[in-house]
UniProtKB/TrEMBL annotation, chains A, B:
Domain Saccharopine dehydrogenase NADP binding, chain residue ranges per copy: 6-138
Protein's name in the database: Saccharopine dehydrogenase C-terminal domain-containing protein
Cited InterPro entries: NAD(P)-bd_dom_sf, Sacchrp_dh-like_C, Sacchrp_dh_NADP-bd
Record-linked PANTHER family: CARBOXYNORSPERMIDINE SYNTHASE (PTHR43796:SF2)
Amino acid sequence: MEPMRVLLLGAGGVGSAAVAIAARRDFFEQVVVADYDPGRAARAAAVGDARFSAVGLDASTPGAVAAACREHRVTHVLNAVDPRFVMPIFEGAFAAGAHYLDLAMSLSRPHPTEPYRRVGVKLGDEQFAAADRWVGANRLALVGIGVEPGLSDVFARYAADRLFGRIDEIGVRDGANLVVDGYDFAPSFSIWTTIEECLNPPVIYEHDRGWYTTEPFSEPEVFEFPDGIGRVECVNVEHEEVVLIPRWVNSGRVTFKYGLGREFIDVLRTLHKLGLDGTRPVRAGGVEVAPRDVVAACLPDPATLGDRMYGKTCAGTWVRGAGKDGAARESYLYHVVDNAWSMREYGHQAVVWQTAVNPVIALELLAEGAWRGSGVLGPEAFDPQPFLDKLVEYGTPWGITNR
Amino acid sequence: MEPMRVLLLGAGGVGSAAVAIAARRDFFEQVVVADYDPGRAARAAAVGDARFSAVGLDASTPGAVAAACREHRVTHVLNAVDPRFVMPIFEGAFAAGAHYLDLAMSLSRPHPTEPYRRVGVKLGDEQFAAADRWVGANRLALVGIGVEPGLSDVFARYAADRLFGRIDEIGVRDGANLVVDGYDFAPSFSIWTTIEECLNPPVIYEHDRGWYTTEPFSEPEVFEFPDGIGRVECVNVEHEEVVLIPRWVNSGRVTFKYGLGREFIDVLRTLHKLGLDGTRPVRAGGVEVAPRDVVAACLPDPATLGDRMYGKTCAGTWVRGAGKDGAARESYLYHVVDNAWSMREYGHQAVVWQTAVNPVIALELLAEGAWRGSGVLGPEAFDPQPFLDKLVEYGTPWGITNR
């Protein structure tokens, strides 16, 4: 195989953590870190390792992305920028003949008349529409390979392969007990993305009904997370797993619930009520600006909060059905990162580190040939065992609790 | 007495409503409506009555205000612009030998080190510092003569004169059940100003302690408003009555609580928590913009909402102590305006109409000689009876409920 040369787009929290993680591995020849802000790219690439270089790049057009791929002889594009830029990067990688990985899929658009009942354009629909082209070109677009989507999908496939004979429901459940010292309110993940996913109509899959939507924050439940995190209120949120898992794993129902907690839900509801979640520019103080950009600008950059953050974050997949022996079974496959550990070991906070480790593992599996494929594929399209083995090898174990 | 000639500064909601109210009275010779925007002044003055004229005027310097007073032989200046301009208008009127009335007093500045415990510069301090000059010139500055401050102070004096032998507490309480059709959230007054007054440290007076401050939104209580408005959650807010009433009325304690309601309080708290109340520009989406301006831009302009507004607004003064007979007594003196009535009768929404009627009545009492005085005086320095009689005569009765 030709040596792997990666164009890593986005030197934010996740991109920077991916550099720190990849720097300890030897499966690649070059990682070019690209960001709209060249200084930010340079800071992320400055890990004292000549295999990392930095460029400034505006990822909003396929042409610019393709040109960067050609200039740096890129074999794999890893997209770690916000999901508005999925399509130009996805198309730019394709145009340049590179393989492609992302952590979030092309955006949804609500149903025009029944947004809280029916799906409109679903997450990833634009990408899946191009699947035949990618197969034809013998190129792989591995979509949704962060932690959620990503590791959560790997867990779903593992459960189907190894643990269950019949699956009635798969529910991805994400919760944390992280707190940030010195701030009244400091989300540990991009508020722009959080607003996007939490205020869109949540999507649910049912075998007999297909995909449908509900009101935001629907079906609240208190989920008990392992490793001392404990009980957290979770609500339905639009997420890629719900559109990915049913394509490769047979399940009666698939949901995603996010452990936002009461305070965060209230903040999101208020932003929505005042129109401050909007992405269409408004005229204010003599300039045109999108309200959501102003909300993001007022909050601290989550990537800078690691030193003031305490606690653990948990991602995982809860599965209910019958085991291989036919007996009723309920299991939660999970991965926990303690912020104190990720800060000490990598200098990156738990949430971004947990997201970043997965695409690095995937790249390593692709470099080694353990994972291979073409077309537009989710993580559950691949054998989960080598992925989970790598996770342990990277020093960050996963677990199962049976209920 | 010489004929009354008024310079009305500010042709916004309150100034325009004051014109509509004064046009039905005959106590004055001339009202010159002045605004920074000459077109807005002309629109407000266009009531088909030759006693009203319009001029453009920048009220930010005393010299410009004094020149306009001299040019139009003004006897009384009525200041209905935003409180940032109180001092130049107050000084300009004095320089021209005119009497002066306003609806809000000179601004406060928080205590530099203990903003939520001690007062710094209080509302009106700059004006009261000039009181001796006004007495010496035999001119009157009647400060805070809108509805709150204004009518609320008249109620306090009435309670002391007629109803109570001993007053333990005077609490101005403002609440409404106004709703605006077609919006999830549409404040009926400027959100910019509401944020300003609600996030300043609220001031409280106690006989044994003097004036002191608390945290914003302190001492929440549910107050029962009359006339079908019902129970509304009220919190402490910085307001002029707390600095005016104790100067002329003996009370153990004076507070002002605003019936913002739970939803509005939550919105303001959330804006503050996220830094979206800030007036210092932040960099967002490639431009510099003050977050508070973006919040205001996302909401509808309250001046345009009168036709879509329903409900009533109530201003009043709650008094607790002992009656003239020595028995425990608790009374709420109040004034309610139904938006349907003020729109039908005057074409102005309830909140601005209720503010505007009071300075017109005060001018009429001054013209008739029923109220007279010199120096810097609050509404509670005068006999309340003729004022309350005029309120009834103007077709907008007041009431008392005993509890």
